[in-house]
Amino acid sequence: MAQKTIPSGARRLAKTDYRNLMRRRIRRILLICSSYDAYTLEEDGRLEVQLNHEYMELNLSNPPSFTRVSSSTEALELLQGENDFDLVISMFNVGDLDVFHFSKQLKALHPEIPFVLLTNFSKDIYRRIEGEDRSAIDYIFSWHGNADLILAIVKLIEDRMNADDDILGVGVQSILLVEDSIRYYSTYLPAIYKLVLQQSAEFLKEALNEQQQMLRKRGRPKILLATNYEEAVMLYERYKRNLLGVISDVGFVLHKNDPADSEKLDAGIDLCRLIKSDDPHMPFLLQSSQESMRKTAEELGVGFVVKYSKTLLIELSDYISEEFAFGDFVFRDPGSGEVIGRARDLRDMQRLVQEIPEEVLLYYTSRNRLSKWMYSRGLFRLAGMFKSVSESHFPTVDGLREFIAKAITEYRIVQGHGVVAHFDAQTYNRYIWFARIGEGSLGGKARGLAFINNMLQRYDLYDKYEGVKVMLPRTVVVATDYFDQFVRDNGLMYVINADVGDEEILSEFVSSRLPETLVNDLRAYIRTVSGPLAIRSSSKLEDSHYQPFAGIYSTYMIPKTDNEDQMLRLLGKAVKSVYASVYFAASRAYIQASSNLLSEEKMAVVIQDVCGTEDSGYFFPTISGVARSLNFYPIGDEQPQDGIVNLAFGLGKLVVEGGLTLRFSPRYPRNVLQLSTTELTLRDTQREMYALNLRPEEFKTSLDDAVNLQRFEINKAKHFRNMRYVASTWDMQNQRISDSNFEEGRKIVTFSQILKYDTMPLAGILSDMLALGERELRCPVEIEFAVNMDVPYGEDKVFDMLQIRPIVDSPSNRSLDWDQVDTSGALIYAESALGLGAIEGVTDVVYIRPDRFDTAHTQQMADEVNRLNTELRDQKRSYVLVGPGRWGSSDPWLGVPVKWPHISEAKVIVECGLDNFRVEPSQGTHFFQNLTSFGVGYLTINPFQGDGRFDIAQLDTQPALYESAYVRHVRFPEPLYIFVDGRKNRAIIRPADV
Predict the structure, then answer these.
(1) Which segment of the chain is annotated as a signal peptide (predicted)?
(2) Residue 924 banded pLDDT, cuts 50, 70, 90
């Protein structure tokens, strides 16, 4: 098989915006008829009901409204006064001014308004119509008492109005009906539209929610009506590239408004030969009142139906379903006609193209039947891809099979992006990317994830970057109504006000039963799972503006097991453990500190695939990270708006809990302070990494949500495959660092292959994500992400967006003229500061004594600060907190390892470096996010280097309310003057009398 280059358009799925389809619509209809005719038309209101129902299904808020007048004279008066009618329908008897003269006056006034004549079937009336000038009448229809005809008329006019934009512009398919008999096309049209809408309803079952169904319905095939040969040829030539098939009478007139007696008896045969010579595979159905024409149709190789047949509409429906690729796709043996396979949906098609014999696949692909089937179902992206390729583009038929199957897979993935699907245990599959179980709230975190999912789809980011898929991990959200039901059914309401320890709460929750309907849905879900899962909290308050609750509740990870019941138990235990975390002591303290009520907090649960791959019994991504669109600590050429990123090798627990990671600006990825000297690289790069232990027995009921996470020292993780993407090597003999991981020596996580040599466009992706996030949220944002580079050769790497949340940045922040500020008497002065202006009413300072600081006793310091924080909270006092290193670090060797609730009353937090102890500030941590969201001043100083001021002597002269070997608490008689200038990154704290 000769191989050609696959057209570039077939490689990438083009985006289809269904909202742009059917933009021109019939809004107002002027109906001219007598009271009797009006009653006949309306019957018992069915006309209005059907039209309203159709428009509701299309998600349109304004179905057509009818204005009725009883004569053409009244109609003209109305039309002269305003011009907002979209369609005029008139019965035959309309007063002194007959319909023919009225139609000409209408067109003179409003040539753009379609005019339709509706008449009862009568030979006398037809003879009168034949003898009149009908040039100003767009369509004539015969009224049979069927309200479906009005619907068909409206749809026919709308299809004509939108044909060029939708058919030529987007690829919507069409059906050409050629018939000059008013009586017959008045019968065919409602039947064809009914069939089209019924078939649309079938393929809409593939849509993932109601909104997607409504939008997809706009992509249904259009009906084009020609009443003469000239019009039929014109419509065919214009729309033939998007034509499903033709239904034609055998005899009809050649030109519009020709008399019936000039009908050419074989015009349909001529039309058939013309079209078949141009496209031998175009489906063509001939219809005639003469049975003898069946033989001619067989000779031409086309379908045939007898007009007077009692089964006319059934035969018409069957032909359209199969030949116009409208129903199930039926693969038949080209020789025998035997059915080889039947595809009801994309999933069936994906399977069958891998199984059917070569000659069957080539028969249907060479005739573009696959693309036609997809076009008829509104799958324009796929249809366009398949139409642009043939077997000649592939060296083997297996290559063609792989292309089709892969394209369908990609489409099903992309289709799930941007959509929150309703979970259905019967239809859920691994291509549904975001689904909700239950009808309650998704919670704050899940709303953020749904927003990301939508944003990625709207900006078409899935395959924007060469060699990288940008996506959300496959996600299922258990809504808050199941949390309420779980607490209620198991009688757990008592814990809201009870003084119960965390261990007892967790035990009570884990030993309780989840609702049976939820268990059944989770069982259906895990059958589609192929790897480990992260079970994350998504409370109603999480990630909302100004109170993000970041990291307050638990996140558990569980491995994939082959035993379905065991996997279900692990998942159920994790979900119940997340539920329990609502009532843990730290959660209660945070809710109290944020002035919320525990009784109002509700928990949804996010269940996601974990990004990464398995290696030696452990699972982890290549990279985890946090990126912020505002960098409050810019260095060198960096600007605050350039953003900041913290990267880590392995699971992201290290990043969000303040471990030692790599910090860089996405605009300057090659300028990394930590890598600027050999000494800094050896001292200040990542020392450890986290991985998920895949042994099921490691996941135990525990308050520690990292119970089954394994911590590795970096040099003991050098056997992992992913190290080759992130590590450099310390060549001790030559005292240099090599960017290669393949040399022998100590491994250092530098990410140089990525940041220096662009093995993947990480910095560009992060810059784009931050810019889009800011644009969409209209405020600075923080995102969490993970990257998997450990993929089979030739496959795309994966960039997973894990979370997005707002960063507080009040536009009312004012700045000081620092040239006029005297800092000589300041207790603390900083030139690296984040904050929200003046902070008032603070008299207390709690500080770690610099002369007594010892990294071996940081946990003791944390306990003392916690006790003081509790006392001050009870007294409703806030304070300034000062200490060496990182506040809130999970690594006690980097600072005092407090949790946020332990320092919740601090209004200013100062990280003060010592001569022998200097670390980077805590950006990129959950602790940092909570700190800034509460409007807490955040200062970093290194006085020993001339970076800021810390007057410890002035503090030491104040009487102590509390003093120990490591911690001191003092209170000033008057509130301190505190101003944190977030715009200029400066801050000052001084006594009121200075």
Answers:
(1) none
(2) very low
The residue with tokens 């909302």 is 544
Could you give the CA distance from residue 967 to residue 853 in angstroms, rounded to a whole number? 9
φ, ψ for residue 276, nearest 5 deg = -65, -30
Residues 6+ apart with CB under 8 A from 424: none
Helix 564-580 × helix 502-510 angle, to 10°: 140
Distances (CA, A) of 551 to 512, 524, 877: 25, 29, 25
User: What's residue 45's pLDDT?
Assistant: 47
Residue identified by tokens 């944390």 is 862
Q: Give, as one character, the DSSP assignment of residue 792.
A: -
The residue count of the chain comes to 994
Most confident of 321-325, 535-539, 962-966: 962-966
Name the pLDDT band for 546 (thresholds 50, 70, 90). Answer: very low
- Sign (positive/negative) of CA torsion 161, 166, 171, 173? negative
DSSP for residue 493: G
pLDDT of 204 higher than 70: no
List of E strands, 688-814? 688-693, 709-713, 727-731, 736-738, 746-749, 781-788, 797-806
- How many helices (H) does the chain have, and how many strands (E)? 32, 43
- Residues near 557 by beta carbon (within 8 Å), at least 6 away in sequence: 532, 533, 534, 535, 610, 651, 692, 708, 709
The mean pLDDT of 892-915, rounded to a whole number, is 87
Q: Give residue 863's pLDDT band: very low, low, confident or very high (50, 70, 90).
A: very high
Q: How far apart are CA 598 and CA 181, in angstroms?
A: 73
Between CA 502 and CA 908, with CA 596 as vertex, the angle to 5 degrees is 90
d(CA 175, CA 158): 14
Average pLDDT, the chain: 84
- 352-402 pLDDT tens trace: 988 899 899 888 888 888 888 888 777 777 877 887 777 777 888 888 888
Backbone angles phi, psi at 973, to 5 degrees: -65, -30
What confidence category does residue 952 fall into, taking pLDDT thresholds of 50, 70 and 90?
A: very high
Give the mean model confidence (pLDDT) for residues 542-567: 75
Q: CA-to-CA distance for 144 and 651, rounded, in angstroms?
A: 70
**Which two tokens mark 647?**
């990267």
Asked if 485 and 519 count as a contact pair (C-beta separation under 8 A), the reply is no
Question: In terms of Cα–Cα distance, which of 935, 943, 938, 942 is closest to 908?
Answer: 938
Short-list 416, 361, 390, CA closest to 13: 416
Query: CA of 700: how far to CAs of 570, 657, 695, in Å?
Result: 9, 22, 11
Alpha carbon distances (Å) from 251 to 254, 286, 287, 790: 9, 10, 9, 66
- Measured CA to CA, the distance from residue 159 to residue 221 in angstroms comes to 9
Lowest mean pLDDT among 46-60, 172-186, 239-253, 727-741: 46-60
Distance, in Å, from the CA atom of 201 to the CA atom of 561, rounded to the nearest integer, reads 38
Which tokens go with 120? Answer: 């009862």
Q: Which helix (H) or strand (E) holds 838?
A: strand 837-839
Q: What is the CATH number of domain 22-154?
A: 3.40.50.2300
Query: For 223, how many CA atoms within 13 A lie in the half-sphere containing its CB?
Result: 25
Sequential DSSP letters for 741-756: SSSSSEEEE--HHHHT
Q: In angstroms, what is the C-alpha Rg of the chain?
A: 36
Three-state DSSP class for residue 706? coil
Q: What is the C-alpha separation between 782 and 804, in angstroms, rounded? A: 6
How far are the Cα atoms of 72, 87, 91, 94 from residue 34, in angstroms, in the given order?
10, 18, 8, 7
CB neighbours of 94 closer than 8 A, spacing ≥ 6? Answer: 32, 33, 71, 72, 75, 102
The predicted pLDDT at position 96 comes to 74
User: What is the distance between the alpha carbons of residues 184 and 307, in angstroms, rounded to a whole number?
Assistant: 8
Whole-number pLDDT of residue 302? 94
| Phi, psi (degrees; rounded to nearest 5) at 257 | 70, 15
